[in-house]
Design goal:
Elements (H helix, E strand, L loop, with lengths): L2 H17 L1 H12 L3 H19 L2 H4 L3 E4 L2 E7 L2 E5 L5 H15 L2 E5 L5 H11 L9 E3 L4 H10 L5 E5 L2 H12 L4 E5 L5 E4 L5 H13 L11 E5 L3 H12 L20 H16 L3 E4 L17 E4 L6 H4 L6 E7 L2 H9 L7 E4 L2 H8 L8 E2 L17 E2 L4 H6 L2 E7 L1
Helix pairs in contact: 1-3, 1-5, 2-3, 2-6, 3-5, 7-8, 9-10
Amino acid sequence: MPVGERAAAIARIADGIKGAVDHFAATVTSEMGSPISYAKVVRAGLPYQVASSFAPLADGFAWEEELGNALIVHEPIGVVGAITPWNAPLYQTVAKVVPALLAGCTVVLKPSVVTPLTAALFAEVTAPAGIPAGVVNVVYGTGPVIGEAISGHQGIDMVSFTGSTGAGKRVSIGAAGTVKRVALELGGKSANIILDDADLQNAVDLGIEYAWMNSGQTCAAWTRMLVPASRHDEIVELAVAAAGSYGVGDPTDPATRIGPMSSVAQQRRVSGYIERGIADGATVAFGGSGPVEGLERGAYVRPTIFADVAPDAVIAQEEIFGPVLSVIPYADEAEAVAIANNSVYGLGGSVFGEPDHALAVAKRMRTGQVIVNGGEFNLTAPFGGYKQSGNGRELGRFGLAEFLEVKAIHR
């Protein structure tokens, strides 16, 4: 199919998502508990925006380019195995399948067992958009069975995986036998550095929002808030005040900001980390262990803020994947950067401060993307991680290039 026709089909996929935004949002909420207000804007609305951003790339992308006497040709890599997570089921599907289709690839999509219905809805959108039968295929099953089959299959040329770092390592091992390309978007423990010259109220309000979005079940969540030691108590007080507006409850209620965890197993995992933080001596400034009052049924946890957390504490190093924030004091800017980079992960992060000062600090952070003073998230900029947060990039022309091989024809 010519690239222009592929782009037109992708535009129709975007239109199909837009027309079913409410259905997608309700499905995501029912499957994994994302609060409905958030699901409409981010879990369904954002995928529409991402899908819409790819079609315009077709005209300006250098599918062929001259380099001296060589013709450089970008060709589809082939069959793509896309393995997606439960926390952002539609977004991650779109971020993988749409650029793969624009590149000219076919796709075998394996969604999480927690969110199978969202994948089915997406598949229903592709057919009327003009995607031929057999180009997008959905295969259901567990990671150890279907995921490993996809990773090791000789008929699959590339695996694009989003999920835990542990599972990503298994995908890489499975793919090694056929030396296929592997793109990984894995875990994170993102640092939010609040500098002494920051607007503290804005930094804390956005810091809580980015830490607890999707009920904290987000790989790029700002789960470490790094603050000047001299202003630690002041900032904790602001954080506690902001946290009071995050109501926990029924995810179908538009007023709810923190829904249940995706499963009882996830609830137990998050609760275990809260208990570990208490046992290790961190100060509970908000929330804590135990059931949410009035919500004893359901996989709920109490949104929690820990104050005066040691940089090497378990809750400051391991990905919790729930509404748990660690406030970590630092003595000076050099220590703040060192603490931010003291992680096996490097996915997201942020800096708040005087603009030039904050930008200088952002450049010193070893992470795939940094938001300065709450800057708007750019859907055409590359998204991906350093270190054990993965490799490869999604979104925009960088995301498209992931699904292309490069051939040099010398003449």
